[in-house]
Amino acid sequence: MEPKTEVMDPYGDVLAILPCSPTPTKLQISSKILSTASPVFRSMFSPRFREGAALASSSSPTKLIEIEFPDDSAQALEAVFNVLHFRHDHVSANVSFEVLYEIALVADKYDVTAALGPWKEGFRKGCREAIVQDPGEWEEEEEEEETDKRRREAGKSWGCEALPEKVIESISAARTSTIQSLLSVAEHFRTLYQDPGIKCKVRTPTSVFGASNTQALTCDAAILGSLLRHYAAIGIFPVPPPPYKGISVESLALAMKNLRCFVDFDAGHGGCMVVGQVVKMVDEVLAGVDRLDIWEFVGRGRADGVEDGDGGAWWVKGSGFVDRERSPGSRFTVRSRGRGGGVGGNVGGVRSLFGR
């Protein structure tokens, strides 16, 4: 099938070839934009490498230099290139977790994290969804295929089978920790109302005979009963053990927020309900998920060095470069500590696309 050409910059001097996409694609892009956004691309397009030498020696300003990216995700590269070329209307933050991971790999490998700017917050949504929507059912190997099918049909599959084990472990750990935090909220209110102290906000004077405030005790008992009945109905009383199979953060949080307290409104006990407090604490737990950066658990592998075809190398260390002499015929190659090689090689982990 003939490649289609997408013009990202009509004045671009490079054709990025993405042969690994379903339909082979060529993207007309600007080496100047990429060089400004990325020190890795800046090096690629310098005269010391074949790609840069070809640009410098081009006899015609309209002749485009073709560069292949055989090993990177085509969808991820296209998304990143669109952002860098200010084509924000061509980018969607609603991407699968698998593509999200590939975008993070591309951003780390070519050091364009800062250039992606606000988009990293939009892409972060995918991380959150992977944590809060996962019911943990994929952990049973024999049920994995059927579970993935159900989740795809429900539109909640994040393609865990295509992700590195460390990423899956990080998602699972974040999910388990968040569910434990939600269960701690439930435990807090259950313990509070099992305590003999009076919590009712409607207090009447104790009688001259020293009788206890039965109305207040009745109010507290009604709230405790409401809590226990609701917890049992949503499956968290008795408290379930980890790994909480079949429970997602999203479904548990919603169920906890649907608490109904049966109190005597006519006697003025409406203000004694704890529904608002429960909702507030649940929202605080969910806000913690938004602050999570699962990439911190993945590892900090990155494109560490650049090799030429003769084995010479100059290494990227922080923001500095240690250069060795080379001929203009050397081909730019990104190497990493992890897997892959060549311009399109993948890295072994993700550094900071979603870092704070």
Automatic annotation (TrEMBL):
Region (Disordered): 134-156
Signal peptide: none
Domain called BTB: residue spans: 12-93
Coiled-coil parts of chain: none
SUPFAM superfamilies named among the record's database cross-references: POZ domain (SSF54695)
CDD domains (alphabetical): BTB_POZ_ZBTB_KLHL-like
Family matches, as InterPro entries: BTB/POZ_dom, SKP1/BTB/POZ_sf
Comp. bias intervals (Acidic residues): 136-146
Gene3D superfamilies to which the protein is assigned, alphabetical: Potassium Channel Kv1.1, Chain A
Name of the molecule in the record: BTB domain-containing protein
Species this protein is from: Choiromyces venosus 120613-1
